[in-house]
Each structure stands twice: as structure tokens, then as C-alpha cells.
Amino acid sequence: MADTYKFYCERADAAAVAAAEAKLDNVRQRELRAEKTWRGLAEKAQAAAKQREKDALEKAGRLTDRISVGNEVLDADVRSGS
């Protein structure tokens, strides 16, 4: 994710610079729209990475709630009688 997020931020920064340097209004507006889009993509990439991390932590937590009995693997709630 870091590479994708970084790439999107770099593109947004480049668009912001291009907008600031633009002599024509339509070019400036195009670059500002591009910057907004790249920043949105960066935010989505960051949110997706955080969600993946959260999911991985939850999955790891579920795995630690499992126990082995002989050749069987039981969930913690099964052994507690729930």
C-alpha cells in the first residue's frame, strides 16, 4: 500500500504544481481536478490498507481462540459449551 499511496500523493503533488504554473485557466482547472482525483485515490488506498490490517488482526485473534485436541481443532466457544 505504501508504494501505491506514495505514488498517488506524488501524482497529486505534480498536478498541484502544474496547476500553479498553468498560464491558461482551462489547464489550471484540469490540473486541479487531477489533483483532487489523485488525492481521493490516495485516501482510498490508505483506507483499504487500514481495513486489510484490521481484518488480519481480527483473523489472527480468531486463530488464537482455537485449540487443538488430538487431530481436531475446536473453536473456543465450542469447548466452553456455547
Key terms:
82 residues; mainly alpha; two-stranded antiparallel sheet; 3 helices; 10% strand; rod-shaped
Largest beta-sheet characterization: 2 strands, antiparallel
Structural class: mainly alpha
Helices, by number, come to 3
Return Rg in Å: 23 Å
Fraction in beta strands: 5-15%
Strand order of the largest sheet: 1-2
Low-confidence parts = 78-82
End-to-end C-alpha gap: 39 Å
| Range of helix content | over 70%
Order of helices and strands: HHEEH
The shape, in one word, is rod-shaped
Number of strands: 2
Mean pLDDT: 84
Tell me the domain tally. 1
Structure description:
The chain is mainly alpha-helical and 82 residues long. It has one domain. Helices cover 78% and strands 10% of the residues. The chain contains three helices and two strands. Strands 1-2 form a two-stranded antiparallel sheet. β1 and β2 form a beta hairpin. The two termini are 39 Å apart. The C terminus is likely disordered.
In brief:
This protein has helices at 2-21, 25-64, 76-79, and strands spanning 66-69, 72-75. By secondary structure, the protein is mainly α. The chain has one domain.
